[in-house]
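User: Second chain of the day. Same drill as before.
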Amino acid sequence: MITVQDWAKIRYLHGSEGLSIRAIAARLGLSRDTVARAVASSSPPRYSRVSGPSAFDPFEPQVRQLLGEFPTMPASVISERVGWPGSPSWFRKKVARLRAEYAPKDPADRLSYRPGDQAQCDLWFPPVLVPLGCGQAGSPPVLVMVASFSRFITAAMIPTRQTPDLLAGMWSILAEQMGAVPRRLVWDNEAGIGRGGTLAAGVAGFTGTLANRIVQLKPYDPESKGIVERANGFLETSFLPGRTFTSPADFNTQLAEWMPKANGRRVRSTNARPGDLVALDRAAMVPLSPVAPAVGFTTQVRLPRDYYLRVLGNDYSIDPSVIGRMIDVHADLDTVTGHCDGTLVASHPRSWARRQTITDPAHVQTAARIRGDYDRTRTGAAAVDSGDGALVRDLTDYDTRFGVDFITDASLDAREVAF
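Assistant: Same format as last time:
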């Protein structure tokens, strides 16, 4: 069999140069029959090997039977079940070819999106350590939301993936970056949003205030939110490389400065820039609610004597003047506040580090003053003035306190004195 290069030469010499088959055979050193077959052929020569019997053939019926019952059974297990004695890698290749006939089909459709209809949401965990303060560092999640029609990307780092922080992060992004509310927010089975078709506590109230709804995807269905998945990869490969961060606030600042560049690129699927299409998206979205939804961590607890309350892994000081009273504690993405009967009794920047004690110096001073007043009150209640300004305790107070009846009659024997 001649090579493709020889076949191309023969076709050129015969068709373009007009040489005869004999002349071509003499020039190329080939037989005239070979040249004649090349001239008559309209397609390049192809090597085809006639398949003969294979060592896999006796095992194929058993393999097909196992794949018919268990389409996802690993090739190594199939090899053990059928007693394959040969090469494991060659057996895996043979099984892979047969498995396609038995594997269930799960086609993914090409989707089209209407303006304002949905935004896809996901958490991206950047592979970089961000200083959190107090000598701690970590990789807090980044909440990413992408408008499906315009491909407009919005994102912000949040402290945790708990429900209060997820809702606070979504509201912050919608109000400050998106500027409107998509009619649907598409999530996977994130525990902080809900699982199994049941929304987490507080999520339904959040969507009711915004007049939209949460759509939870079925498990193992990444294609349904492929837009935000690709945005996560884009952030990791285009925003993150070469950057260092001093804090979560610095991360969000750098991300906000870079985001116009990300939304200014041309997207192949839409042949447009997200920044140019987002106006159509916003026009079809639901306007922002005039009343902000209830987001963040909220609880009510009685203030103990040490005037500290634990909030999301850290202890925050509260005004000691309200010890023993019920305190309404609220934590958003930035601050932790405490109110007692509507009066502000604590306000701290939220710490992203863990196991920390955050103290307001004014609370320490207030505690010292209250403690001094308490000591003076106790001392004054059981003391008398000695005349020179000093407080001297009457020793009979101790006899009364401990029930001592001291007899002072000198005529009695000391052994007869009763206590």
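Residues 407-419 have pLDDT under 50 and may be disordered.

User: Great, on to the next one.
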